[in-house]
Design a protein that fits this description.
The complex is a heterodimer of chains A (about 290) and B (about 270).
Chain A (H helix, E strand, L loop, with lengths): L1 H14 L1 H27 L10 H11 L6 H5 L6 H33 L1 H16 L6 H8 L3 H26 L2 H9 L4 H39 L4 H10 L3 H34 L7
Helix pairs in contact in A: 1-2, 3-12, 5-6, 5-8, 5-10, 5-11, 6-8, 7-8, 8-10, 9-10, 10-11, 10-12, 11-12
Chain B lengths: L1 H18 L1 H23 L3 H4 L3 H14 L1 H33 L1 H16 L6 H8 L3 H26 L2 H9 L4 H39 L4 H10 L3 H34 L5
The chains are: A mainly alpha (about 290), B mainly alpha (about 270).
Chain lengths: ~290, ~270
Amino acid sequence: MTAISEFSIAIQRRVGRQRLRRGILGSIPFIFIIFLWELNTYFVWYEPIEIPPIADVWGAIFFMQSDCPGLVAAFQLHNDCQLSNNIMSSVGRVILAAVVGIPFGIAFGILAGINRTISGYLEPVGIFMNSVSGIAWIPLAIVWFGVGWETTLFIMLNTIFWLIFFNTMMGVRAVPKVLVHGVQTLGGSRFDTIWNVYLPGAMPSIITGMRMSLAFGWRALIAAEMIGGDSGLGFMIFVSAVEFKTEEVFLGVILISLIYLMSDRWLLVPLEKWTIERWGLVWKPT
Amino acid sequence: MTSIDLQQTRRFRWKKFATEGAGRLIIFLVGSVILWALISAFLIERPDRYLPSPLSVVLSSADMLYKGSLLSFYSDTLTRLLFGGAVGILIGIPVGLALGLNRTVADMFYPLMNFFQSVSGIAIFPIIVIWFGNSDTTVLIVVLYTSFFPITFNVLSGVRAVPVRYIQAARTLGASRLQVVRDVLLPGAMPSIAVGTRLSVGFAWRAVIAGEMLAGRPGLGNMIFSGQELDNSAQIILGMVMIGITWIVLDHYLLRPLEADTIERWGLVQR
């Protein structure tokens, strides 16, 4: 008894009472759902083709990777490593689109934020492009680029670029003119104002745009892979659904949300917090 | 003398018109359509396939209007959006309120809501198709799902963000539990309800298009998708333009004013 209470006190100290409480409470619904799901495999309220057993979903990982020669081969995109190939092609496309789309979005966003004439022309385009959601571009992209990675990359780029553009523009416009004038008075060139005032001032907004573009872009990417792709997680769940391999569909859906949640929680949220702390123009009483 | 004045004022007026708001937008729209026509006429090898001219898009719309399919597609899509979105929001608000009432319950369901919000409706689409087949039910369920979670999540966090002080004050003055919900929590959560509604409708709109495309139900999404299959690019562009304009109208003239008014009326910003 004492050992248990000592253990619980130690854990409460280490994790924090509130966080522990929230963690335990938050896991209850998940445990309940998993429990119900597991019950379904024993009582078979729904057929396994409708709701596959958890063991099958877990087994699908190994089934899809069964012919994979090894870890090195998985990274070399060996043909037999189905699951890891699909994961890596989805994630790779996100990274590629981010690497191309974010710098362009920031550059055009700053231009439009500084210059009213440019923003007057680019803003309506952006509003329209954002309104024609990424998904609606898929058929035209298929006509232009054919089914394949170009289509999905185009959809992703389209989504990312305009979101980043808008957020950067808003961020640049929100930078107080006083700061710009201050730098100019001290002899700063145009480049100095951009590099040292506008860019840092717009940083929190840019990072928020990055989070948004990941959220929207990931959804658009999954849809694009389903309709116009030839690899990736979206393609995988769509093909598996057509073949009625429900366990693979469940696995894919869980992976899609887990990858999104993890990249958001552990990469973008800390980045956002850090940026706001470092560059946020929030007035802090000292 | 006067003629010069007149000329100057005319030029001035034209300049003002050309550089301000609506005038520039009109010029911009006309300019981009002309640019589009020029590109499709001179730069593209097979314009009917890759970038049909504005004229052929207009002609295709006239053709579809004549056949009556355009309006029926449009109304199908809007009906799905309205029905799915309205049901999702009407279920979502009470559920969010109920979950947010109690701190323990809110703590319990917050991660679950967060998880399901991140599982996009498009991703669960294949599962729904396995359950219900390529039917209208599938599209409606996907729309319902996508609109339900953002609003519930927002209402939940909105209710939780209402300062405990207000609730305690109302309780001290003898308010019953129902009164606290009606007079404190609901108004307090109003801004996040409005934000959530806009978010929900936005996601639902995307889900309608994607759902129609994937399930092959008649609608705008299916119109552009079949346009690709039938090699009829004018139809694709027509559908895209309609999707874009519909969302702009919906967002700028309905949802944004609603959100702004709600925040102005119910927002807890202290003045």
